[in-house]
Design brief:
It is flat and about 60 Å long. It starts with a helix and ends in a 6-residue tail after the last helix. It has four helices and no strands. The mean pLDDT is 80. It is mostly helical. The longest helix has 39 residues.
């Protein structure tokens, strides 16, 4: 359980210590993207939209595959504690990504 606590503490420190820097990075990135020429941005936006949709469909399939792997691992767990540890290790990285995304969304009002 000790390595798990160390990994969790490191992730929490990394996210909370650098949250302001992450928000600032995305603000600057959005400003740089907005400063590009509108004609180029229109074609580029459509291209980006296309590959994002393709990526989303690929991600959906990968999620199903990974959830199947998780289910098989949980079925092999020796006890409930091991199951809970597996689920925590499975959920924590995604929860950090969700937290950062939610923070960026909360700062959307600061973007002109």
């Amino acid at each position: 359980m000790t390595p798990f606590v160390v990994v969790l503490a490191t992730q929490l420190w990394a996210v909370f210590a650098s949250l302001a820097a992450i928000v600032q990075f995305y603000k600057e990135l959005a400003a740089l993207r907005a400063a590009k020429e509108p004609a180029v941005l229109g074609a580029r936006r459509e291209y980006i939209e296309s590959y994002r949709h393709m990526r989303e469909h690929g991600n959906a399939l990968l999620i199903i595959v990974m959830e199947t792997i998780l289910a098989l691992a949980l079925l092999q767990a020796p006890d409930v504690v091991a199951m809970l540890e597996m689920v925590l290790l499975w959920v924590l990285p995604a929860s950090f990504a969700w937290f950062i995304g939610t923070t960026l969304e909360a700062h959307l009002k600061d973007i002109p």
